[in-house]
């Protein structure tokens, strides 16, 4: 028995192979950039040794900067996960369809934010 999940959507929507290839290239480029950024941020977010000479920075300033780096690191890791998920979904027929209204997400939006799962209208409502 075939238990294929069929999810209906309102409009027939197919990205061209060229558009998907552009989006895939963008995703791979962004993943590369994020992995480099994460490596850098992991170094900057390491704990500060108590005996470390900080020079002109006070310990409090260094700890505040470290906290900012940790938050950016967390956001970068989250986006990396979303981009990897988008890459795994790119050949799925529902890629580029809003999960809220089931309307096509604009190709231009997908090229800029390929991890998007909502159209601009639905994303702005949240």
What's the topology here?
Elements: H1 17-44, H2 59-89, H3 107-112, H4 120-125
How would you characterize the overall build of this protein?
With 126 residues, the chain is an all-alpha fold. It has one domain (17-47, 55-125): Up-down Bundle (Four Helix Bundle (Hemerythrin (Met), subunit A)), CATH 1.20.120. 56% of the residues lie in helices and 0% in strands. The protein is built from 4 helices and no strands. The protein has helices at 17-44, 59-89, 107-112, 120-125. Helix 1 runs antiparallel to helix 2 (59-89). The protein is elongated and about 60 Å long. The chain starts with 16 loop residues before the first helix and ends with a helix. The model is unreliable at 7-12 (pLDDT under 50).
Biggest sheet record: none
The CATH class name reads: Mainly Alpha
Shape: elongated
Order of helices and strands: HHHH
What is the helix tally? 4
For the record, the count of structural domains works out to: 1
Helix/strand structural class? mainly alpha
Any idea what the radius of gyration is?
A: 20 Å
Amino-to-carboxy terminus distance: 40 Å
CATH topology: Four Helix Bundle (Hemerythrin (Met), subunit A)
CATH homologous group name = DksA, coiled-coil domain
Mean pLDDT: 83
Tell me the β content: under 5%
Q: TL;DR?
A:
This protein is mainly α.
Write out key terms for the chains shown.
126 residues; mainly alpha; Four Helix Bundle (Hemerythrin (Met), subunit A)
């Amino acid at each position: 028995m075939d238990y294929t999940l069929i999810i209906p959507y309102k409009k027939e929507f197919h990205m061209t192979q060229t558009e998907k290839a552009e989006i895939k290239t963008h995703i791979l480029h962004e993943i590369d950039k994020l992995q480099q950024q994460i490596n850098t941020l992991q170094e900057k977010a390491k704990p500060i040794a108590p005996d470390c000479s900080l020079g002109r920075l006070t310990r409090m300033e260094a700890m505040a900067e470290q906290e900012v780096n940790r938050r950016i690191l967390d956001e970068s890791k989250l986006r990396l996960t979303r981009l990897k998920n988008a890459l795994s979904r790119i050949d799925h027929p529902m890629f580029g369809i809003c999960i809220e209204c089931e309307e096509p997400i604009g190709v231009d939006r997908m090229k800029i934010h390929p991890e998007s799962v909502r159209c601009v209208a639905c994303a702005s409502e949240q």
